[in-house]
Amino acid sequence: MPIKYAQKPWSDEKILKTLKPYVAKWFKQTFETFTPPQKYAIPLIQKGENTLVFSPTGSGKTLSAFLFAINWLFSLGEERRLKDSVYVVYVSPLRALANDIRKNLLIPLEGIRKVANDMGLELPEVRAFVRTGDTPASEKAKMLKKTPHILITTPETLSIVLCAPRFREKLRTVRYVIVDEVHELCDNKRGVHLSLSLERLQEIAEQEFVRIGLSATQAPLEEIAKWLVGYGNDGKLRDVTIVNIYETKKLDMRVICPVRDLIHTDYTYVNTRMYEILRDLIEKHRTTLIFTNTRSGAESVTFHLKQVFREEYIDQIATHHGSLSRTTRLEVEDLLKQGQLKAVICVSEDSKVLTNHYWKPIIEVKPHDKVVYLDDQLKLREGTFAGCVSVPYYDKGFMIRSRLGFEIKCTKEHKFLTIRSSKLTWVEAKDLKIGDKVAVIRKIPTFQQKVPSYYEFIPESAYIWLKESFLKSLRAEIKSKFNSIKHFCKLINLKYSTIKENLNGTYPIKFANLMKILRKLGKENEILEEIKNIGTDKRKYNIPNKKISKDFIRFLGFWLAEGSWDASGISIAGDESLLKYYSSLLTKEFPVKSIKDKNPYEIPQIKFPSTLLLGMFKKLTGASHKKSLYAKFPTILYELPSSYKWAFLSGYFDGDGYLEVKSGRIYSAGFTTFNLNLAKGIQNLLLQLGVIASIRRREYNESREFRGRKIVKKGTCYTVSIYGGENLRTFAININPKREEFSEIKQICKLKGYCNRDVVPDIGEILRKARKEIGISTYKLQKLGYNPVKVELGKREIRRENLKKLAEIYKESSYGRLLEILSDSDIFWDEIIEKKPLKLKRVYSLVDTSNHNYVIEGFICRNSSTSLELGIDIGYIDLVVQIGSPKSVAKGLQRVGRAGHFLHEVSKGRLIVFDRDDLVECTVLVKAAYEGKIDRVQIPKNCLDVLAQHLVGMSVNRKWKVDEAYKLVKRSYCYHNLSKKDFLEVLRYLGGYYVHLEDRGVYRKLWYDEEEGVFGRKRAARMIYFMNIGTIPDEADFRVILEDQRTTIGMISEKFLERLIPGDIFVLGGKTYQYLRTKGNKVIVRSAYGRRPTVPQWVGEMLPRSFDLSIEVGKFRELIAEKLKQFPVEEVKEWLKKEYYLDEAAANSIVQYFIEQLTYAGKIASHRKIILEEFFDERGRQNIVFHAPFGRRTNDALSRAYAYQVSKLVNANVGTTITDDGFMLILPYGKVVDIREIPPLVTSKNLIEILKRAIRNTELFRRRFQHVATRSFMILRKYKGHEISLSKQQFRASKILDLIADWEDFPIIKETYREILEDVFDVENAKEVLQWVEEGKTTFDFLPAMEIPSPFAHGTILVGISDIVMMEDRQALLKELHQKILEKIQEASSTIVIERKTPETLPESIVLDLLEERRTLVIRTKEDVVRVLHQVGAIKFNEIKEPKFFKLKGFNVLESTKEEILNRIKKWIWELEEEGKIIQVPCLKGMKIHYIAIEDYPIYATAYQEPVKIGSLERKILDHLRSCGGATVNQIVKTLKIERGKVNRALKNLEKAYLVHRKRRKTKKKSKTYHTAWYIAEEIVPTRILLKTAKMNKAEAQKQIILKFLYLNGPSTLKEIANYTGFPQDETSKILSLLEAEGVIERGRFVDYKPAPQIIIKEDLEELRRMAEITVKKEIIPTEKLEAYYKKIQHLTEDTKGSTESDILKILADCGPMYTLVNRTPTLLNRVKIPREEVEKIIKKLWKKKKVFWVRCLREMKALWIIDKEYPLFHKLYSKKIKINDIDQKILNEIRENGPIATHILARKLKIKTTKLRTSLQKLERNYKIIRAGITTDEKGRPAILWDTTEKFVPKHLLKSAEKISAEEALKKLIVKFLKINGPSTIDEICGWLGFPEEKIKPLLDELEKEALIKQGIFTTTKIATQWILTEDLNQLLKPKT
């Protein structure tokens, strides 16, 4: 059976056995396990079977392909059979992918060799090189001498190397061919090209090679498999096995509808909502990838997002598409790759990395530095890294501190090394808990030692005496390079007279000046050998020219502890004997005087007055002031020999050391300091010496009297404490203190013992297995000195010393080596003692360090590495957003698959839609994606142009027999059915048999002897082949000119030109033109003013919908139509939400769309019903719409065929408009056809012939002919090293086509037809549709001519509108069509009236609707559990699973919670309880145990606390719980020795008194099981909550509990309330009376289904009454009446337009805010009778008088004009509180001092870049700190804004008004204004204009309605949703005409 599917995976062990030991070992060290595709594919490849692997991104496909090939290559190397030859060929469609693969391959290749080397094997290098079009010629030449064993290439380059004579020979040994990204190749001509190249490669290979294909989402699998393997010489399909692992990938795809009403919501609001949604999604995710379907769309989204994120991370948004330069694309790809660091390992910028020199801040680590890492034997080594990267991080990270004092600030994903379940594991920071043990360094290796000289610390102020010879050479060099010393001094800004004396040796030179000179000359490294002496300018206190001594280092240690400095020098203080000793150490080295003195605290001190020493010590410590706080630890100490380090520590110990002595025994020793740098430095120095010490902190804020002076001790004190055991012994042996009280430290040397904290955690399982493996009992082990039973059981951790003993005993077991490594490692397992969240802004990481780890802040941490997974990735992406439909399920899955890159992660995608057709399409696509319905690809067959290329390539190598070549070609799946006739015709063309072509410059490309049946190479064929190979055509832009051929209009792309046929109307530069013809590279047009476009400008970029997805859309249409006929609308909506993953808005839009179509037309088109609909447009032309949802490519074929046939009927050109859901024929004026006659005109039998005739003379045929001719070498792109311009290629193509257009059997013409019909169109599926019609599976139906087209036709009709109008106007046209549809549907009278009535009882449906809305308590996250508890009140644990206590309509708390979340809730509850966010208390009826939110504790404790008698037993239990901090019942029973029953009763009594509470806690620290423990209330309830409880009144608490119940249950009886709360009925009645008196509730009969009286919250009653009171009569205000009324209000009628100042003020008062100086909506220009210039003058006058202001306001914060009286409203509502930085403050200060001031003057004065200045100005303007105060001009005469502060420019009375008015009042006034201007408006429209959310606007609308200013209802059929209108306007509109 040629094609089969992989059935059974191999286990890890089985695969590893097939690999070489060193390869297997490398794999185990690098990966935890094989992934599913690897388990299936590697065994197949190992057996030599052709394999096609289908699996999701990040599943390890690439490694599955390479691993066995690498294994085989190394085995050849081991056997010395590895030649300089190619064994593996990897083919990638992308050059970038090829480069990444090579980089990633080097990791295993080097890693395996290293492992083999460690095992004692010397393996030869396995080479992997990339060869593509980018590879330099020199690199290609090197590959002949040093041939890659793995060749990484592209399809085009592979076809070239097959013809390279010398390299071709290297390919004979090919054993494996890997084709990556198969889905990107197989459905286009590049795939055809590669298919032939593989057969040519097979022809020269010594044996049949193994073909391995790698693919993501695609179908049909078997067709793609055939494409990969082709056919054998026997004509049979080669065997292939398919590995299909697609179903393992999890999906989270959803459709997002930005607004509830896609038709009527203003376009700008829809657009703004989209960017709000995008912003929200981006901020909630680390890296978001946004796809659009057009390049222009990508640019537009990027621009708007940069506006949205102007303040936050504008630099992190970038565009990527094919039109960008390669450099730009690579930059964007690199940014994405770096973006994965947000999800991997990143730390704050102050984190320090351990290098081979010393600790360095991560931002200072350089590429040449060696970083310390942990090797496989857990030893610290120095290694390399690839680089340091930095990215912004917009999420919270953690600060983690260990017991040793190591502290790190890192991202949540930062990985630490731990041991879990006896395995070394990398754990992310977010998963670590306090008490966990992580790996830190136990010692720091010293990689190099040196003792520097004193000269290396020369201070800048020192004076240098130089050798005469050096001074002479300096003078000579300066003169030769700079002509004179004087000129040189001027260049480096030094005083000539001084330097002259210095260089002559008259006077010593200052060190700072000397370094300036040497740096300029490039000789700064030569200085030390040329110095004679160093000192002050008076030759005093010289620095000795020798190595630093131990005495000096000891003095440095003492000085850091007890020293200080001032301007004259340094000093030390302390005990006089110590001072004497340390003074002698310094004066021995430096000839400096010492002065005895006392410091201000009367403590003896010695001063050393020397500025030289002061400079040296400052240089050593890197501090300029407050040495005790800010001095840095001298880094030279890290590289000194050990004896020097102990000398330093001894000196510091004398100063700030301590000994902890108890009962005459020393327990601890260490150092103290208030400087964290010094504490860390001492700890690190001790680690270098093999001594482990911890850093402890203590806060001080105290003062004390000392010798009459007040000494303040404030700050954090750090104690460096030596760990016990061997650490303390090592310290005592080597430390040499001089303080008398420290002399007893040496007694420690005699003590024995080990550090109890030096343990290896969680390895009990290993120890148990090792013991059983060697068969030794615990009893025997105890005899040998150690019993590991408790360790094996997990009750104790094993000390390192004991592990060493066991490792020796167990060394013969399989675990022996591991135990030996663990016992002798450089790791200390340190406990985490603090973990707290913190905000990180920018984070850093080292990339690709040795062994993928490095040491940072003492922790061993995993780093960012591309080596963990072979294969390309563009970085970590956790969300993909698709704007609009991706047009195919496969493309959608491929795009969404980039999120959650790794196999077991969720691929998360969101599809944002803008119109209803797109919404339907995306809905169907998401459903199909979940169900795994993948679109089928169509593999091109018999492409004659590609065949021509390969025949020329084959001829280059040797002479071929025709039959032999034909047989080779037919082995390719793409040519298996190629006829011999077509093959021979291509040979005849290439062989020059068409002699007429030579007249057009087309000559033969090979020699062909037809009689002998052979062909071979023609001279120059090799260069033609090499320079013109490839299938991707060059595309050009065409110049558009008017028919007079003199006026140039602009440029259009070749893809757009392909779509045009004579007579088509298109848009360019905002005007419409009619296409006439093409002449060369010119497009001839004529003006088509006022005519509607037939082809949209974006058609060349738009993706077509796949045929398979289109059929699914058709099925969906059928299904919805049937559902709407059978079920109520609400049920259909619910079904859509559930089955198609839709939200309420999307479901509502779809249902409404279908209802409109059914109501208006009575029919819905589908794949089984094509509907023809006709209408006549405004020009009287007949338009015939085909409702045919088959996708654009299929519809393109059908539309051209029908248009051609109809054009013959009417004898005139017929225009077409095409969409995925249908097409439209546009007949010329006066031409009409009966639509029922059209269907029979095209059949499945005549379709192809009709299409050939239809396209023969089109621009599409000309363009495609040029592409085919270029591919088949008829037209050359390059010749003899020169490029031939596109215009010349086009000219030659047109000349050749004129000659051969009628040669239908000529291969190039034949291929042009094939490419158009099969690749551009989808003729096969078009034929299939017509066959369905002929078989009766699909029918034609007809809609009679109607005045208005049906709703489903609107998208097709308006397809080109966006090119001639702005989007908002296009939407207006859509609204107009939609309004007419609704008016036809309504057939109602002329007015609408809202009547109010107060019903006796509320309708049950309305009450239940409100309650259902409140009870929709969705739980998505752990935090939602707390929110729901707070909202619902107390919930019993079993009720969380299945709530029973809500009686009304079976209310279930978790009804709206997803299934997968339900499973997590139990765990979340226990975690929240552990975190103290929720608590268990007895409450409600029966005092059962319930969970409540901790914030609600005061309510329940006050309401339900019972007085309980506290007896002796209760006191004992309370005392015990208080002392032990919580205990289980078992523990209490065991400790107090009291019967369990008594303990339980006592605990329950205490619990009812709220004195103790139960709490679930883990049985062990790392256990997953919980048990119940008891705690006193103070232990687990925060103090602030207890204080609230103490203050709370019982009646108040009871009120809140009752209100919670009423909120969720609505009208309820007294009995129901008492039954729920558990309060006695009389007590409940009293509480209700209090609430009634306060006006919070009402009593009465409100619903019929409950007995009276009932209680309801008053606000709820009012809301329900409002809902019940509104009834609508079927009387509608005519649209014409509405428009006329509001046009007058908007000053849009002739009699309302004005021209004076007062007129313009009135217009702004009535219609503002608005634009005036730009042509935007709303604008003054169309409301006045005067020209624009006059308007501008008047506005400027009013501005000057401060009658109008230009401010930023409304949703988009655009600059708009408002009148002075309205200024307070906008100031109050739109002044944004934005954080002001230093630059902003600087600008504000300048404007405050010198305003009004122009922008360009500000930029000049403050020296700020204009872009930065504008950003700051905009920020300050949005803050209402500054305001536009006028307009002036800059130096070039351009307008420039004048800026002033708001407080200066705006009158004070307006600013006071802004302060006084409330935000709510201001909003209400603007709502009234909006309704006055716009009339009946929905809440979306009001929110869209104001820019405020619905939750703020809705209450204000209710208030205005109460005040009778506005009314709510349905007033126009153009808007379906509820509308609001001003009461006075409604009254006017309802008045009868007089």
Keywords for this entry:
5-stranded mixed sheet; 8-stranded parallel sheet; alpha+beta; 1938 residues
Determine the structural class based on helices, strands and strand pairing: alpha+beta
* Number of helical regions: 74
Strand order of the largest sheet: 1-8-2-7-6-3-5-4
How can the largest sheet be summarized? 8 strands, parallel
Q: What is the straight-line distance between the termini? A: 90 Å
Strand percentage, roughly? 15-25%
Poorly predicted segments: 320-333, 337-345, 864-875, 1097-1101, 1360-1372, 1387-1400, 1439-1450, 1670-1674
Radius of gyration, rounded? 42 Å
Please estimate the helix content: 40-55%
Mean pLDDT: 82
The shape, in one word, is globular
Number of E strands? 69
Task: Give a brief rundown of this model.
By secondary structure, the chain is α+β, with helices and mostly antiparallel strands.
